[in-house]
Amino acid sequence: MTQKLNRTNYDAPAAPIRLVHLGLGAFHRAHQVWYTQKADPNWGYASFTGRSGRVSDQLEPQDGLYTLVTRSGDGDSPEVITSLVEAQPSYNLERFRELLGDENVSVVTLTVTEAGYHLAEDGSLLHDDDVKFDISELQKDTPEKLETAAGRIIYGLKARMAAGYGGLAVMSCDNVADNGPLTRNSVIGLAKEIDSELASWIESNVTFPSTSIDRITPATTDELIEDVKRETGFEDASPVVTEPFASWVIEGEFPAGRPEWEKAGVVFVDDIEQFERRKLWLLNGSHSLMAYYAQLKGHATVDEAINDPDVRARVEALWDEAANHLTADGLDIPGYRDDLIERFENPRIRHNLAQIAIDGGTKQRMRAVPIMKSELADGRPGNGAALSIAAWIEYILRADEIQDTRADDLEAARKSDDPVKALIAALDEELAANEDAVERIRGFHDEVKAL
């Protein structure tokens, strides 16, 4: 006989809420909440969905409890996670405001994807429709709705300033380079449009730590829900599956305190830049290469792709290029590469290449493009990165519908007279102005379009 998973049936008193999160999804629950529970279960999370309220609807009847299934070649290890105390929909602005106005709340974390920061390439605030809407709404004492993460944070920080409490840390856990400065630009850029006094208070009191995060977290399936019910005896509407590997590197200060995450294996560093690049270029870079090149070859998952000798050779070539520019102490590039191969080969983590392929117009800007440009600057051709860009181009050209936040721009580029060059320019204008680089990518494109 099974039971509903909740705090009545499962003995897990709710911890005090001291952390707030925007972007409630599987990765957040497999990473930040899991690390927090390992470090100190007395720090509770209140987490808000991005736009849809689906996950909060599933977790609210469970009092925030869910099962995290760590899946390795040796089997499954299910664990009930208790540190998520509240699962809230994005539209509950007043609860968000109340929490940030609480002296006990010390850290806000975010997983809203790069598009969620609404910034132009130069780091300035985009005045798109969502930003314009929030500027208008934040002029009111009580906004009816806010569209951006920065808008919600500003609404909450205004309450904190009014209450006379000190600042806190706002920390992006999104998979983008320089995510601390990115978050700072988004929040302060929008605050300056609303209230100069509030913007000054944020600049003086709020910190924006940078992070490098890593843990593969595939989508939840009906099969996983049934596995959890059978293995644990609890009915869980929203379990999460993940791999054994996890990594979290942080640079920055926490003015209101934080959990002792280092007890759970989090690494604190003075300079995070090359740790970010290691993850973006090696893990994410190879993911993108496989997402396009291996799909063109007919593969569906990461483990299928990495076991194709041709795909593996392409991945290794990309890694060789990236490693030329990853030289900081403590990176252990050979060990990191070995770990990646082991993770990719895990047959029980079904990481779909089609899922990874979404939003390549943004992802490849941070993955293949900087590797190729770094190689070109050192007088090398950057063939591994060029192949990855070429495979993305062919993937876009074949797509019935482009699944990308930049779909309009990419649609226009692929309809141009020279779609290869136009799509390179959509990634990086400087790279597109380098005729030798364009011709090199074009040559690889001729190769991959024959697949």
TrEMBL record:
It catalyses: D-mannitol 1-phosphate + NAD(+) = beta-D-fructose 6-phosphate + NADH + H(+). Gene3D superfamilies: N-(1-d-carboxylethyl)-l-norvaline Dehydrogenase, domain 2 (1.10.1040.10), NAD(P)-binding Rossmann-like Domain (3.40.50.720). Residues 18-263 form the Mannitol dehydrogenase N-terminal domain. Pfam families: Mannitol_dh, Mannitol_dh_C. GO terms for molecular function: oxidoreductase activity. InterPro entries: 6-PGluconate_DH-like_C_sf, 6PGD_dom2, Mannitol_DH, Mannitol_DH/Oxidoreductase, Mannitol_DH_C, Mannitol_DH_N, NAD(P)-bd_dom_sf. Keywords: Oxidoreductase. The keyword Oxidoreductase applies. Residues 271-442 form the Mannitol dehydrogenase C-terminal domain. Its EC number is 1.1.1.-. This is Mannitol dehydrogenase family protein.
